[in-house]
Amino acid sequence: MRKWFQKHLDGMCIGKASFSLFLSSKSLAKEQDHIEGFAPELAWVTKGGDKDLDVPVAIRPTSKVIMHLYYSSSL
Question: 22: buried, middle or exposed (CB in 10 Å: 19+, 13-18, 0-12)?
Fold first, then answer.
């Protein structure tokens, strides 16, 4: 599916963008109103292998927060 879309987008001068699967609690706090509805379903990563992470990260429930942070500073 990605190849099909890329083939159609290549002639449209649309650049590729990749966004992290993980968000810090600081990033989530910036969009508290939007994330609030997802809070009960949020998955938190607290370990890397057998070690506890110093700062847990959430698996982002939507792309809105991370894309907004990126595009608001790059446009």
Answer: middle
The single residue listed with the structure tokens 């809070």 is: 39
Average pLDDT, stretch 26-49? 81
Which residues does 42 contact at the CB level (< 8 Å), separation at least 6?
35, 58, 59, 61
Provide the 3-class DSSP secondary structure of residue 26.
helix
Contact in structure between 23 and 60 (CB atoms under 8 Å):
yes
Tokens 């506890």 locate to 52
In sequence order, which residues have a C-beta less than 8 Å from that of residue 26 and are 6 or more positions away? Answer: none
- Residue 8 — pLDDT band, cuts 50, 70, 90? confident
Task: Give the residue extent of every domain in the chain.
Answer: 17-74
The tokens for 58 are 């959430």
